[in-house]
Amino acid sequence: MTVNARPYSTDTLREHVARLPRTPLAHLPTPLEFVPRFTRSVGGPQIHIKRDDCTGLAFGGNKARHNEFLLAEALRRGADIFVWGAGVQSNNCRQTAACCAKAGLDCHLVLSRGKPGPVEVQGNLLLDHILGASYEIVDEKIGDALYQRIAERAEQFRKAGRKVFFWENEVVKPLAAVSYILCLVEILEQSSREGWTPSAIYVSSAGSTGSGLAIAGKALGVKFPIRSICPIQWEWDTLEDMTQVANQTAELIGIDTRVTPEDLSISFDYIAPGYGKASPAGLEAISLLARTEGILLEPT
Predict the structure, then answer these.
(1) How many of the other CB atoms lie within 10 Å of CB of 206?
(2) What is the pLDDT of residue 4?
(3) Residue 92 lies in domain
(4) pTM of the predicted model, to two decimals?
């Protein structure tokens, strides 16, 4: 396995990423905001938040970043419909529906019910509807079973004559991770202009977001840890998968950096009581940030 003999610069990484097709969707760079009252409330250290809720696409969110690369790839392939999926209240699906609306593509969502009983058209599901996406509610859990259901639906659209772009892990994950290389570049450039360097970066991820940050950190030679706080326990080996995605991403943009599992830091300590379910501690954290800084989070 080869690794870069010396770190890349942020400018060089940008140049490598720029070789890929990209459709502008997000308001970038998003602010890197110091939160002083929140910092004092938890007794320090100084905490800054990368405000990816300010990306501007359908109420914002970090998935606007990866949709810039996914949409560009779909358009390159001549797609006329996205077939996507996740949980009923998925932020990912909401922003995917928005990017399809902006590009004039159809969007069909395969949404995991998550729990028995009827599903109310509210929250992100209501936004999916307003954005013009069609959708179906299924019982398959998020993971391999849902991905298989998405692939089956994509094949049905294809047989009906549609040009489909759908959730294929080997295509989607590395492309999505590319956008988080740029996210770390933004963080380093913004903090440098303000005269400080991060001591650590924490991100909610068990996939492409953390993979992109990890390969970027290795390529740039950063000395601080980048810690992925996993919001879900997959049925596969998360650390192995994220390592593979990080290295596929490096190959995709043509850099010689590679990571090993030892280069990644992940934690499953904050999932209980389950994916997307609020815990008392989580609700306390949401309330504390809201009441000290006016910033709203959600349970994941």
Answers:
(1) 23
(2) 53
(3) 80-162
(4) 0.95
